[in-house]
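Hi everyone,

Forwarding the result from last night's run.
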Amino acid sequence: MISTTYTKPHRATHIARDDDLGRAHERIINFIMRREYLIGFALIVAGLWPLHAAAQKYAAIFNFGDSLADAGNLVVDGIPEYLATARLPYGMTYFGYPTGRVSDGRLVVDFIAQELGLPLLPPSKAHNASFHRGANFAITGGTSLDTSFFEARGMRHTVWNSGSLHTQLKWFEDMKPSICNSPKECRDLFRRSLFIVGEFGGNDYAAALGAFLPVQKVHTFVPHIVDSIGKGIEKLIAEGAVELVVPGVLPIGCFPVYLSIFLKQQPEMYGPRSGCIKDLNTLSWVHNALLQRKIAELRKKHPGVRIMYADYYTAVTQFVLHADNWGESPSLVTGVGFFSECSSFSLCFAVSCYYSA
């Protein structure tokens, strides 16, 4: 169980491994570690590299997102027993115990913080943490859109929204009195900080696809999701943010959960090289294209603000297409023969199993 008060994670000097952790699971762990590195490579495209050059630049990092960046907000008051992240192998490669991260070790945002010489960002719901060097508002299940959007369209039972982008922005607003004493002091801090907004959208599409809506119908949600992200960015700019990273979504047609649910009969439904579902990857591509268009609009509107797009899609696609370069087989990357590793309560992303996106 995780303590109800925040304890700064530390690297274990010795990690006890269960004897029954099989070879297949070890390969999965190794793959996840490599996935962290490759997604981190996307930040080079975003313009954050070399990070060492910016080490003296940022006073803090404020991060928003979903399970790809959740450092423990979902479990700050304890991990429910049904949550797979409550057990090893989660946390085993760095911390030595589960921290609430949907990873065997660190997250991309953790690497960024360390490269910038900043401490790992505490989850914003932590009870006894200091947030003067930044905070992580991301939470597993986070969406771009508020729950009301899904409820109005009959998706109340397929969305698990523990904190939308705009809910996380409310948490950010509520935190301000604890990190700065005046609006001027807040703006000064935020102008010297890095803001990471996302990725957002993966769970929005999961809610729609989980309701078995036609993909063509899901496409009609893309402008709403992207506009919501744009509004979130503008809220942060109004607070004083001048340096923001906005990641796109990953190629969801490569996710084992969708490959398992949406079994296609025609071979042409799959990418000939990747084995991923083409129309779902097209959905991701359209989202990212509209998001980049939105970012371009915001750059023109706010010329004094640097908004950097992080291309997760291309990085993960290269991982899938060239898995052998990373010591893995394409069948493992796309999940073939892996579904038995995931419990009935789990949603599989890439090769990791956990309760939700």
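The two ends are 21 Å apart (CA to CA).

Cheers,
N.
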